[in-house]
Amino acid sequence: MKTLMRYTMLFVAVVLSQSAVINLRLAQAQEGKIVPYVPTPQEVVERMLELAQVKKGDVIYDLGSGDGRIVVTAAKKYGVKAVGFEIDPERIKESKENIAKAGVGNLVEIRQQDIRTVDLSGASVLTMYLLPEVNLMIRPNIWKQMKPGSRVVSHDFDMGDWKPLKTEHIKDGSTWEHTLYLWHVEAGKK
């Protein structure tokens, strides 16, 4: 019985130490990031751009652009200039590969930059899949920097008391439900 108890305690100690190592690695991998990388399903990307009513002459900014799928889709489908902002070097490398593969290098740019420091004044459409607290952190910049009539689309998270013009629910291929929010920037909003 004592041997079984020792083995059980040893097993628990090993499991706990492995868990601590995994958590430390995850924390190190996410260091400097304010949101985790979670790719937006392609059908949701398509609907986000449709909801924003992207048209010729628009400039799309995607905050936390990950593998570049939103900016690549915007350039391919609508022929618009699109800029992704990403902090993770691996995602940037992946984005650049996806841009080259799609042949949209003349329209798409990825900038390695903290999304909290982006000057949003050049965007007519802003897309994002962030977290609620990050949306609220970015919201004053949207109001101060974006031109009236600019469109903002957020995947899954709203912006507190800033009521969206439209809210949609969409299921992806795996039947997971996503919520999309659309706002139009208003003049004088602070």
Low-confidence stretches: 4-30
The amount of helix comes to 40-55%
Note the quaternary state here.
single chain
> What is the assigned CATH homologous superfamily of the largest domain?
Vaccinia Virus protein VP39
Proportion in β-strands: 15-25%
Distance from first to last alpha carbon? 69 Å
Widest beta sheet: strand line-up: 3-2-1-4-5-7-6
Structurally, the number of domains stands at 2
What's the order of the H and E elements? HHEHEHEEHEEE
Radius of gyration: 20 Å
Short summary:
With 190 residues, the chain is an alpha/beta fold. It has five helices and seven strands.
Describe the structure.
The protein is an alpha/beta fold. The chain folds into two domains: 31 residues; 143 residues, Rossmann fold (3-Layer(aba) Sandwich). Helices cover 40% and strands 21% of the residues. A seven-stranded mixed beta sheet has the order 3-2-1-4-5-7-6, covered by helices on one side. Helix 3 links the parallel strand 1 and strand 2. Helix 2 crosses helix 3. The longest helix has 28 residues. About 14% of the residues have low confidence.
Which key features would you list for this structure?
7 strands, 190 residues, 7-stranded mixed beta sheet, 5 helices
